[in-house]
Write a sequence for this structure.
C-alpha cells in the first residue's frame, strides 16, 4: 500500500523478511512507569516471534515478562532519506519450558552481557507493522534495497 | 563507572556528545495504550533537548504532546559486540511559540515526510542515560570508538 506521505506500508511477510536480515533491534517496555528502550541482538522464531536471551536476574527480564512490548528494527540512510522500520508488538514472556531451552540455546544469539544464568524471552508477533521510506526528498535518488 | 556486566555507564555529557554525532534516533511513546516506536531524524538543542520536525496533523505530534517519552539512539556492531546506546527521557511538547519557529526552522532537519504544515517537537532532557558495551565476548578484540 502506498500512502501519500512518502512512506509505503509493508505487509507482515515483508516485515518479517526484513527483520530476518538484521541481528540487532530494540525492545521497548515500561520501567518504573517510564518508557524504556534497549538495543539487543535477537533472532526470529519460525512463527515470527522475536527471541532474545538475557540474564535471568536482569531488569529487562523482570520488566517484560507478561507485558505487552514493542520490538523495533530499522535500517535508515539519513543522507539518502531512505530505509525501512519494522515493529513487532505483542506479549513478552520468559520461556519457562525446559523442553524449549535446548532448542533456544542453539538458535538464539548470545547476550552481550553473558551471565551464568540466562533466560530466553519470546515476544509474540501479534501485530507486525512496518514502513519503507520511498518518497522523501532524496538527495541522490537512491534508496535502500532493504 | 564500570559495571561488571560488560557495560560501562555513560555520563550525561558523554551521552549528549554521542547523540550529537548521529542524525537518526527513535522516539518511544504510547499509542492507543500500546508501546510505539518510530525512527526520526533529529538534532540537539544547546541544552540537550531533542528537537524534531513532523507533520502538524501526524499521529506522532498528537500522541507525544505533553507526554513523557523516551528518545533513543545507538551505534552497535553486532559482530564485534561493541557499541553504545543513549536514551533521553522527558516530557515532549509541540513548540507553540512563534518566536522559536524561525530558529527551529533553521536548525532542525527536515522531516522524511515533508508536509505543508509542520510542527517542531522538543523532548526535554530530564533524564539522560547511556551505556557502552565494553566487555562482551568480542570476536575481533575491537570496539567502536563511539
Amino acid at each position: 500500500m502506498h500512502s501519500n506521505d512518502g512512506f509505503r506500508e509493508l505487509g507482515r511477510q515483508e516485515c518479517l523478511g526484513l527483520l530476518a536480515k538484521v541481528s540487532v533491534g530494540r525492545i521497548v517496555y515500561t520501567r518504573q512507569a517510564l518508557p524504556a528502550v534497549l538495543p539487543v541482538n535477537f533472532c526470529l522464531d519460525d512463527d515470527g516471534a522475536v527471541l532474545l536471551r538475557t540474564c535471568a536476574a536482569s531488569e529487562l527480564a523482570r520488566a517484560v515478562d507478561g507485558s505487552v512490548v514493542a520490538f523495533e528494527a530499522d535500517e535508515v540512510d539519513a543522507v539518502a532519506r531512505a530505509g525501512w522500520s519494522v515493529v513487532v508488538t505483542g506479549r513478552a514472556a520468559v520461556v519457562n519450558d525446559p523442553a524449549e531451552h535446548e532448542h533456544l540455546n542453539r538458535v538464539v544469539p548470545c547476550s552481550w552481557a553473558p551471565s551464568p544464568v540466562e533466560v530466553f524471552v519470546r515476544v509474540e508477533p501479534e501485530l507486525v507493522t512496518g514502513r519503507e521510506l520511498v518518497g522523501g526528498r532524496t538527495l541522490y535518488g537512491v534508496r535502500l534495497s532493504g
